[in-house]
Amino acid sequence: SLNCVEWSLLPPATEEMVAQAEQLKGRFQGDPSFEYEYTEINAEDAERLFEDGKEPVIKEEARLIATIEQIDRAVGIIPRGAFVKTPLGSVHENRNFEGLSLTEAKKLSSYFHFSEPVNLKNKTLLEKADLDPSTDFLDSLEHDIPQGSWTAQLEKGGTVVVLRSLLWLGLTFYHVPMSKQYGYVYFGTGEKNLDLPFML
Known about the structure:
The protein is an alpha+beta fold. The protein has helices at residues 15-22, 43-51, 60-75, 102-105, 125-129, 196-199; strands spanning 35-37, 57-59, 77-79, 83-85, 91-93, 111-113, 150-155, 160-165, 171-175, 182-186. The radius of gyration is 20 Å and the shape is globular. Belongs to the flagellar radial spoke RSP9 family. One of its GO terms (cellular component) is axoneme.
């Protein structure tokens, strides 16, 4: 939005936009038309961009789209059982999901990344034997690297579980145990906390 009254959806991010945005450092300027120049681009990539008729710049709007995509991939999470995978491979919202119990809601293993699984494919057959293929088809937070990149807290007298990401500072996830209420929101600078391994 340019005036905070009329809103429109951002276009989907491409892999090229995400790769370009990962090279940029520093905070956002607040101007969608602002152009960032690549300071650490190698000569070969710069030559390829010039041959394609593109300048080695990226607009802030494209950086914003790519950053939102990065945050969703890295720290977009759901409670275990909120979505189910059918035997044919399609994923649907679980209408029978009634929330996690309070003891389950306190465990990081009860929350999954809502993105294509990476670590699940590397598990052994013995590890996969204990998993339910209809609900455990995503990567769990307990195996995130670095260990300790999530904080779990009980709030409102133990009625709400709040998870916060230390990798993307400003990402807050909430779940009300024994209910269908869950979600996450990000209020941050759009910068990844690259110092996290040294802070733990």
